[in-house]
Amino acid sequence: MKEYRDHYFLKAKRENYPARSVYKLKELDAKFKLFRQGMRVLDLGAAPGSWSLGAAEKVGCDIQTTETAFPPQVTFMQEDVFNRSDAFEARLREMGPFDVVMSDMAPRTTGTKFTDQARSLELACEALEVARLHLKPGGSFIVKIFMGPDIQEMLQPMRRAFKAVKSFKPKSSRAESKETFFVGMGFRAEARPAAQDAGTDGAADTGREPGAL
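Below the sequence we write its predicted structure tokens.
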């Protein structure tokens, strides 16, 4: 795989982040004011860990492992987002509900544009389902997607679930990248599946300092 040694790649190395993607999250936060101290954040597709290190308190989960050393308040879980176990869902209910659910998940690219777009859409839609299950009312959702002709399959339900949905292309994204980020703000409580209501409303806020979970 070609290694991009651009400004953000080198900056991430200097600042001890595992990847340049942390600067995309920082731009998103600067634009939309998504994070505050004491928040609970669920990071889907957390490996190698830049978003988990760059955001407020969070839970990271990924199908891949990571060698990143997280702060003590971090919980890293490895799981397939398409085949989430009952134990994993129970753990999320125990740790949530979350103020922010964010997904930097991307498929293994094939080089075939429409295949990669379709796989990215599947991941984004599944991330939205996780957000609907585990977000607090009023919470926010961040998702990356490779833009394609079927984008409305994600945007239509996302617009029903959030009071506002915005798109954003960070400057730290590579110029040739087809990725775009969508941010849903103001999660509507009625968008959560009814069966989850009783299981998520009782979690207490820890008020801990920012870090990575």
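The two ends are 30 Å apart (CA to CA).
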